[in-house]
What we know:
Chain A has helices spanning about 1-25, 45-55, 55-90, 90-105, 110-125, 130-140, 140-155, 155-165, 170-200, 200-210, 215-220, 230-250, 255-260. By secondary structure, chain A is mostly helical. A two-stranded antiparallel sheet of chain B has the order 1-2.
Amino acid sequence: MLRALGAIFMSLAALVVALPILIVCSAALNGGRTMFFPPQDPTLARFGEFFVSEPVWTRALTNSVIVAVGAATLSVLLAWPIAYRLWKTGSRASTMLATLGSIPFAVPPIVFGVGLGFFWAFLGGLGTIWAGIISHAVLFLALPLVTISIGLQAIDRAHLDAAATMGATESVTFRTIVMPQTLPYTVSGFFFALVLSFNEFIVMFFVSASSFATVTLQIFNSLRNGYTPTMAVAAVAFIAVSIAVFSAVARWGDLPRLMGADQSRN
Amino acid sequence: MTATDDTAAWPRETAAAAPGTKGPRAGRSALAVQVVLWATVLVFCLVPLFLVLVISFGHKIEGAGWEWALTLENYQRFFVGANWPAESTSLYLGQLYWSMRYAVVAALLAVVTALPFTYLMTRQSRRAQAVWLVFLLATLSLSEVFIVMGWDIILSNNSGLPMLFAATGLTDWLKDTGWFDVLRDWGLANPRNVKFKPSEVATVLTLSYLVWPYAVILLYPALSRLDPSLAEAARTMGARPWTVARTVILPSVRLPLIGTTLLLFVFLLGAYVAITVFADPSQHTTAVSVYEHVRGSTLNAPFGAAQSVILLVTATAFLVLGQWLTRKSPRAA
């Protein structure tokens, strides 16, 4: 009885969570220029528009990809030495540095966005795509920091002991034990940052100063003119990327562990 | 968990022994790396926030930009209006009130519904949990603009629910039973049919939806570490399920529960798209006002910055309050 109630509750929750997404996705099939639900005159032509023929959308998509890949790479490169130092020394200074690096992710995004808008205006980078890349790298630095730290703590102590006994130097240990064992966690951090950067828009809005648009920005800008099925295609593409990425993390990494599950129970 | 703690402690011992074996050059380059890291983090993470603080004391020049200054006029405008003491306005305080109201209600709604869900999820197999996590992470990372778009289609007057209500005769049924007038009192109906846009209900629901996956992810570690034998023991001793939930499960996740609510609250303070689409303009929030002043029609960067600072102070105040609450109360087992 109670079990059945629980199952009903969970399916209901899943349904509510999926509902708006399903509706947006089905709206992508509309043949006309307006969003209808259920879709009228279903067609896949909108997908062609989004990925191939409409320059507004293909340009936005290219910008999104450039910013997301650039920002995720940069944030992983910055997070690695910080997380490694924290794990290695555990000193107060390294804890402090990691905390400071997580601040942008913790404050309301609109506040950090406003700040970055001023920041780049002074440096003269406002509206350039590299300013967008750096901004997102800083904003999402906390994600690879956390996943890499979790990975470093998961390294088997016996391996480090063995390496030390056999006289391995720090760099050799790093190359042969630390790097390979933390690789899944590094990749997870990269993908978390990638997906969130892909979907972020308010910080990008202040940094881009309307001189370039990512997909989310482009959709936000056209919100006032009403929705078109092409926007729904963007939503389909984005959710597909997210599901692919997180499935990959779950497949090759340890997703429950990354999310903080108890290790002793399986 | 002890194994993990040992591994974490191990490298520290070697680190303490290592410096003597390193050459001076290695030490110098390590130092250089440290300096670069600190400089990068300080410049990119803290300077933007520092700029917001400094510019909030700036002065707006009529018909032009703004200049550096050390004036409190922006804060004065926020709390009592620009023309105080001749006249005063609580417009901006009202916006802050709406920010907090939406954030509190939506955060509580999300946590209350996410708690039983997360508990049930952690009782499933590890594989099933991974599937749920993929699903939740995918919806969590989906941009606010897409989610608002979806709810907008569901709730807007020409399509979605209101149309469904009229088509299925639910509207007529509501009118017959008198519930329609109640809905009108709540602002959820116009003379002809139900309407959800603009309304506070739609705003809160969308905001709550936005943070719901976060709530699950944040509650997940605590609930998955919950020892099932405790609940089982209580069950064997004849406690009813509701009693178990109230006396065993709830007390042991009280701290993560408070922490999650606070984090969701802070996150929601900055929500923007959902508010502009679903809330009535008279019920807009500080975040919307920040946006209008920094990038919108009014262009008053110092005032926008001042409002950002106030938003940040509000968020910090709630976090500190939460810390204080959790520290004051006896520690949960």
